[in-house]
Amino acid sequence: MKVRAMEPEVRFCDVDGRRVAYSTLGQGPVLVFGCRWLAHLADDWQDARVRAFFEELGRTHRVVLFDRPGSGLSQRELEGPLTLELQARTLSAVLAAVAGDEPATLFGGSGSSGWAAVHLAATEPERVRRLVLFGSHASREDIPPATRRSLVDFARSSWRLAAQMLAGLLHPHGSGDEIAELSRALHRSADAETAAGYLELDLSADSRDFLPRVTVPALVLHRRGDRAVPAARGREVASLLPSARFVLLRGDAHLPWLDEQRDLQRALAGFLGDAVSVEPSGDSPLTRRELEVLRLVAAGLSNREIASSLVLSEHTVHRHVANILRKLSQSSRAAAAAHAARAGLV
């Protein structure tokens, strides 16, 4: 697939009479991303790091982003309380609007976004191809109830200051300017009442009853130094999933597009790779399987990692790589990946 600059297309769907904004970019199997506490589809896309993260995923998937009810470009006026059930219905409605009956990969995060993804995977497995959880938790019983209440009250009564404090928690080693910009982005995404409501919902979400019921393949990613959700919470999630791989990443930022990207993209490419149907180009001398291998080579995976991802022997992968180098007249893996990118093969 030829790499081009991507611009997301924003549309709206109905959830309980509310307008919910969602956007799509890229082509391929559907990947629904519901990993953000507060988001704004238009503003967030102006951040180069956000853009680069989703454009990378959009090379092989049709990526779907959405703003939760009451936030971002979604209808800001809310009738009734925010509930976990509303989050589940929102994810289900967005998925139906984009994918129809096609099963999709769900990418969930901490709190209610992760709960909604796990809930859908457990209760409607025919709609879910794979599950990715980033910086997630099964519950926050590690935080005393009084501390949870004080955090929620702080967000409700002093939203601007709370946004600044929480921005520092999400990006601990960010510069002063980076923390200030993230704080402003959070503040623009929702008013105080909605921000506090989602914070309360995220801190109270408990997916322990649903995680053991998830039968689809799952990848649980967590940064080693995450201060918003300790890595031990992610390990618990992986331990409760019947078919999960847990990958501990370098860094301490809670949001996936911040901090070190190489290990993250490598883990995602390895897990999502065999779900992507790579069609040979009419101008390509490579077979479909060789294109799959080449795409993972370009993502930085070793032969052993490619073999694990595609359920092949390491010897078979070595043979595919040798064939790729021969057919493309290249002397190294890096040269083959660069040539394939220029030629639009990956």
Commentary on this structure:
β1 (9-15) and β2 (18-25) form a beta hairpin. The longest helix has 16 residues, at 84-99. α3 (84-99) crosses α4. This protein has an eight-stranded mixed β-sheet, with helices on both faces. The chain is globular and about 65 Å long. Helix content is 47%, strand content 14%. It has helices spanning 41-44, 48-58, 84-99, 111-123, 145-157, 159-170, 176-189, 192-204, 231-240, 262-272, 288-298, 303-310, 314-328, 333-343; strands spanning 9-15, 18-25, 30-34, 62-66, 104-108, 128-134, 218-223, 244-249.
- Uncertain runs are 274-279
Strand content: 5-15%
**Helix-strand category:** alpha/beta
SSE sequence, one letter per element? EEEHHEHEHEHHHHEHEHHHHH
Overall geometry comes to globular
What characterizes the major β-sheet?
8 strands, mixed
Mean pLDDT: 90
Helix share bin: 40-55%
N-to-C CA distance: 5 Å
- Report the C-alpha radius of gyration, rounded: 20 Å
- What is the count of DSSP helices, taking H or I runs of 4+ residues? 14
Tell me how many strands there are: 8
- Biggest sheet: strands side by side, in what order? 1-2-4-3-5-6-7-8
